[in-house]
Amino acid sequence: MTEQPGIPIRRLLEDGFGRQFREPDAAAPESTGGSNPAIGPTLEIGSRQETFVNRELSWLQFNRRVLEEARDGTNPLLERVKFLAIASTNLDEFFEIRVAGIMELVEAGLHGENPDGLKPQEELDRIRTDARAFTAEMHATWRDDLLPKLQKEGIDFRQIHELTNKQKKWIDKLFKAEIYPILTPLAVDPAHPFPVLLNKSLNVAVLLLDPRHSRRTPRMAVVQVPRTLPRIQRVPELDGESTHVFTAEIVRDNLKELFPGLDVVHATTFRVTRDSNIDVDEFQSTDLMSSIEKELVKRRRGEPVRLEIDQDAHPDIVDRFVKAFTLELDDVYYCDGPVNLGRIMELYNRLELPLLKDKPAKPRRVWRWGSAGEMFGDLREADILLHHPYDSFSTVEDFVRFAAHDPQVMAIKQTIYRAGSKSPMVDALIEAAQQRKQVTAIVELKARFDEEANILWARRMEKAGVHVVYGIVGLKTHAKCTLVVRREDDGFRRYCHLGTGNYNPTTARLYTDVGLLTANAEIGEEVAETFNMITGHTRVPVMEYLLVAPFALRDKVLALIRAEIANKKAGKKASIRAKLNNLADPAVITALYDASQAGVEIQLCIRSVCCLRPGVKGLSENITVVTIVDRFLEHSRVFCFENGGNPLVYLSSADWMIRNLDRRVEVAFPVLDPEIKQRVLDEVLDLSLRDNQKARRVLHDGTFERVEVAANDRPVRSQLALLDKSKSPVIPGEGTSSRPAKGRKRKKKN
User: Fold this and answer.
1) 126-356: what CATH class?
2) Active-site residue identified among 139, 244, 387, 478
3) Where does residue 599 fall: left (phi above 0), alpha (psi -120 to 50 degrees), or beta otherwise?
4) How many of the other CB atoms lie within 10 Å of CB of 39?
5) Is position 478 annotated as part of the catalytic site?
6) Domain 547-726: which CATH class?
């Protein structure tokens, strides 16, 4: 792969892990001491691999946990199919972004190390080995486990030659009417250069012979399976069975129709994964939106990073592809089954078989307001905590919708990171602007794989009169904030929503997130200052409540960890509990090690990447890490510091990673109401830490093991417990009412 002109290689450091690199010919000797500020002065390079887990290998362990759910016989069968599809698509994105960046570092010959001590080439070699084994495990899961069980349930996948004559005739008719008209055979020879194949497009490579010529060297051609077609075709039922055929198999079986007069010697399906990183120099760009749009076009034709191909692919085809894509043989991944297992998600979405799926989740809708006045009145009385998907996201949409139509609301401001293709909330912002309210939207155009949707929303909002801002140059705006300014009898009052997840109604049903609706005047003022900082490039003021990255969040987290160390030494209560998506920041990890060595008990629930090594004697023996993979993606971020018996609890948009703490605008905010604080501790933190059904314990080497039910414990599946509780109007945790009692007024600041 080659570096594009004008694009600095620095963008490869946008991995949130703190690699340090220098040019390949630089004369500076390799570092031999602990001078890397991201790691800390106490760690020697020789001990780094014993101190940190490699980020990429940790992520592969996370995806292995996802695959484990596909192999878990206690899950409904179609849910297992879903998990296999998710594991496959996860791996795709991993190659598109993470592996692509490492391969570019290797090609550029840059020297340097991860905090764990691995150099890029070593890292790439280990990833290839692990990913190759993982690919084989995915296909074995499909072929040897799920397919036979699907067949027992009357859901059968067949090759074309296994169909009945009646079904073959149906396939022939389908091919001629729906598939053949949109296929395009592409010859590959000196007169026809190798075609540019789109990222992850499914293709069939064909070797052909002309029987009229004595020449016996096969010609080659490529046929793309159009993305407009379903990947799976359901053929007429046979004896009550649901019979399915992959569309790629139909194309392969009808290749003679595309190459009349030629003999099809060999055919194999394949696809190419390409580098999908977007390279935009924001400091040089005069039009960020146009620059990103140009990069989105390039993304589909980025540098190849992986070739997936049938297990029995002809060596000549593999050899030609490796040369054409400038890959190494180590970048070829053979598939003993369907190329791209992500397409089996169609099966899950299409089949209406309730007995083979989880029972549908019904979010609790406690807050039903009849008017804006009623809603704002409730918020003036007390804060409202929403735990999605157990609590309905409609409450957040109502907050913006009522504000948009309330004549007393003067201004609305919101950050937008991943709004999705359909968003009632953004529609409400547009309506508010059309009613001449002051509406500001901070749209993050660089939200990975949501860039196109965000550009469309930005244009729609601008056309409607919304002030659209793209954040601060060089920083992603990842904070989740909404601010409503309302004129009331005693003057202007601010109402806010702050959350850990995106303003996306689809993911709000699939991800666990926590949000807070509040009319707290001090928090409202600091949220307003945060918006002014982003939109007006003003200086960041010192804040009492909000922790805003990249200006204060890192320092505050480190200070809170140090405070727990001091409390422990002083004989006070001291502990740290946190629930995060990822833990990869070396400075925070080092501080946690210091706390563990001081005797502070640390309990962590980390969904994905964990570069900390727990349970190492003399280093982290007081740290335990669990991780949960269940039907909902664990996405909430909560920090709790015991603080001598008066716990400090924060909800946050940020993980403890370099990219979140140093290169994004993030907001962590305190939970001040004692009852809501207790609910967060009971329902979000402690219940997750007590899970012994879907939890795994992370081991010191980065691998994991299932958490077993202790002899005197009862089974706890945290998500199922919360779903059961959501059927009741009572919030889990000490019987706290989900709706604040009338007359319980907001406590004033001392």
Assistant:
1) alpha beta
2) 478
3) left
4) 25
5) yes
6) alpha beta
